[in-house]
Amino acid sequence: MEAIAKTKHLKGSPRKARLVIDMIRGQNVSRALAILKFTDKRAADPISKCLSSAIANATYAAEQQNIAIDPDGLWIKTAFVDMGPTKNRRRVRPAPQGRAYREQRHYCHITIQVTSEEQAKSEKELKAEAGRAKRAEAKKAEGGEKKTPTKKAAPKKAKAEEVETPTVAVETTEPNVADAKNVETQTTEALNETKPADEKQQDTNEELERQ
Fold first, then answer.
1. Fewest CB within 10 angstroms: 28, 44, 61, 182, which?
2. What homologous superfamily is domain 2-92+101-122 in, according to CATH?
3. CA–CA distances in Å: residue 72 to residues 55, 64, 69
4. Integer angstrom CA distances of residue 140 from 144, 149, 161, 208
5. Half-sphere exposure (Cβ direction) of 19: Cα atoms closer than 13 Å
6. Would you say the pTM of this structure is higher than 0.85?
7. Number of C-beta neighbours around residue 211 at 10 A
8. What is the b/e burial string over 67-76, where b = at least 16 CB atoms within 10 angstroms of the residue's CB?
9. pLDDT tens-digit map of 26-77
């Protein structure tokens, strides 16, 4: 769906209006309106109104033909500025040698065409895509050359685990004679301690008599 809007006899020179038109040509409608809103130029406001009129014309034409379109999906297909009439004013400006030049008032005509068709890619974008494709192919070719078939390593045989049998050291003890004597003396002393005092005296007396 396409629609056209025109603004005629706009005050201002066409050269100044073209500076604004060049900024929105080929842009999306919503983006173009945002650019015009923040552009500090005299022609930005009337150009914004002309663009809004083109959007309204497109939606109206779509309704008449029972076609559903998204206004935000429109983009500016063509936009140009033509030279309008030039009027001489009564005011004059001093000129050399005593002459006077009349002031001129310049006008211009603006034409904006919007469309909902898919935006064709520019030559710059096509060249950029071709360059990306070439670089991707070159990388793939380099990657294929670098890759070499690798042999799979054979699984290592598991080593048999060596089982060590624990060695038990058996110690043989021989009875000591000295230990036996010590045990006998300890037992006799223990018996002496348990005996009463009278028996102890008798034992001592017997030992003295023997001596």
1. 182
2. Ribosomal protein L22/L17 (3.90.470.10)
3. 9, 19, 9
4. 6, 17, 49, 122
5. 10
6. no
7. 5
8. eebeeeebbb
9. 999 999 999 999 999 999 999 999 999 999 999 999 999 888 888 888 999 9
